[in-house]
Structures are given as C-alpha cells and as structure tokens.
Amino acid sequence: MTKNIIELKGITKHYGDTIVLNNLSINIKSNEFLTLLGPSGCGKTTTLNIIAGFETSDSGEVIFKGNDISNTPPNERQLNTVFQKYALFPHMDVYENIAFGLKIKKLPNDTIDIKVQEMLTLVSLSGFEKRNIQSLSGGQQQRVAIARALVNEPEVLLLDEPLGSLDLKLRKEMQLELKSIQQRLGITFIFVTHDQEEALTMSDTIVVMNKGGIQQMGSPEDIYNEPANSFVANFIGESNILDGIMVEDLKVIFCTKEFNCVDRGFNPNEKIDVVIRPEDIKIVSSKKGMLQGTVRSVIFKGVHYEMIVEGNNRSWIIQNTKCHDVDSIIGLDIYPEDIHIMRKVARNE
User: Fold this and answer.
1) I need a surface site. Which of 16, 22, 165, 236 has the fewest CB within 10 A?
2) Does one domain contain both 134 and 18?
3) Residue 146 and residue 321: Cα distance in Å, rounded?
C-alpha cells in the first residue's frame, strides 16, 4: 500500500479577519501527482506555501514522512518549488542557474557537472549550457526552472501555476512534459492551478478547493463524472444543473418527466440537483426523444459543435459532433448512467 509522504492536519490560516484556510486536511501519497484546483482566492497557493514553509498556519500540522515540520525552515525541508515567474537568475547562464543550489551545498565540481548534465538531458536542453537566460523561450525557461529544482533531488516538487504565462500550444505541450518527468523520476508533484484542463490532463488526484475548504478530492475521472456538488460540477467543465425530485432509488423526476438513474440512498421524494454533462445528451428525432427542444445557437468548437437548446422551460448546453440548424426542433435522450444526482444542501457551497 502506498504511504502518505505529506499529511496536512486541520490547517487553518487567517489574513486579518479573513479565513483563508478553514481546518484543511489532505493526505498526499508518495509518487503522486496531486493538483490543488480552484478559483483565485480559494486558498490553494496559501496551502502550497504552508507546505513549502514560506508561510505558517495559525493552527494544524504539516507532517512529512511521519514528522511534524510545521516549524521547520523552508531550506531544511526536502521540498523544492517552481514558481509561475520561474525566478531564474538573469546574470547567469543555463548551466549556472541549474548548478546554483549544488554550489551552495559546496559539492565537488565533477559531481555538479554530472548532475547538471543529467538534468539538461531530462528536460531536453542538452547543448544549452552557455545560453543566456533571456535568450530562451518561455517553455525553455520553464524547463530550466524545473531542472534547477530537481537537481537538488527533492522528495517533493511544488509547482505554483508554472504554466500560466505560456501560450496555449506550449502550455499543452508542457502539461505532457511535466507528467512525463514526474513519472520518470517517481517523485511526488504538488501542482497548483485554476485551469481545469491542466488538472484533468496531468493529475492522479485532484483537490477541488473553494473559500478555504475542500469541495471534493478524487481521481480526474471521479471529479468529472461524479461531482460532489454544484460548485464542482460547474467548475470542472460545463454542466446542465436542474432541480429534480428523487422519487425512490433509481428513479428521478426533472422537467416534469420521470427518468431511470443509477443513484441510491436518497429519501423518498427528496428534492435534489440533477447534473447532466453537455456531451452526454443524445440528439435524436423530435418524435422519439425523451425531451424536445429548439436549437437557438450553434458554435463550432473544433472537435464538436456547442448548441444552446431551449425546451421544457429551460436552456440546455449540448455538445455534439453533428451540427443542427438554428430554429430546428430536436429530440433529446438521456441515459441513466449520464444522470448524476446531488443533494440540495451542496447547492451553495
């Protein structure tokens, strides 16, 4: 069984009268790629800074490999951080930037050279040793920052929105590169982002945060397919969220019609929220559909068309590879496994 390398226990943090983190507890496994995901101000960067030791919590513990490091200085923790701005030294070349931490440790020059060359190979920058930092592209600078952090052989790498300043194409390339590096090294990555696609692409585990607390923690598949509440459903991808009534196990009413579903454990006739992803709504002929609607707008998104469809007293977001004309009437089918039920108490989280 994989052991936890970091445990956050009851972390609370205030800035003045504002609660930034409220009794936060997270277990992070060895060799895991874990992402803290949420909107600006949710507390994810503060969480990372508390793990790194750049900030201290008002209460709670940071446990590293069984030991409380809550009061351990950052330079004594077996962690390294890559920031969004990279924080590279402009007066040093690529080699000198990567070697900086090793020289601080006063390692022999031969050892430093071997380790720097290994890192340059790892991040695909062999031959760039003497290049000026300011002559590098954004993606190359990021690779240098990663190499500089990894050359010290940390057991955990902390990454604070490191892809935020890159253009879309390069960001997608670096998502795959980061995941590949993490798998090759077999160390723990803790990644902070507000970008849902980044989190879904790279993570083993996603922690969705809002207002200083955890909304849901799980695999990308679980977070996307089984959102715990309406905040998660809306934040991770797009969703149709409807009012409904859970008649009994496996049966739900919404849009004045009864549907089969796969959920259990609700009270008879309990008011609930229904989540249906746009890509899970099947378009059929208007006469055969469980529901009907009129197409009001169509946007081409590259891999699919996104349509706004009005019907049954609401607007639906539908994604489909086939385009349907504006003002056409279509039928909508929704299968039981594509209907996700959430309790109403989670609506305002």
Assistant:
1) 16
2) yes
3) 39
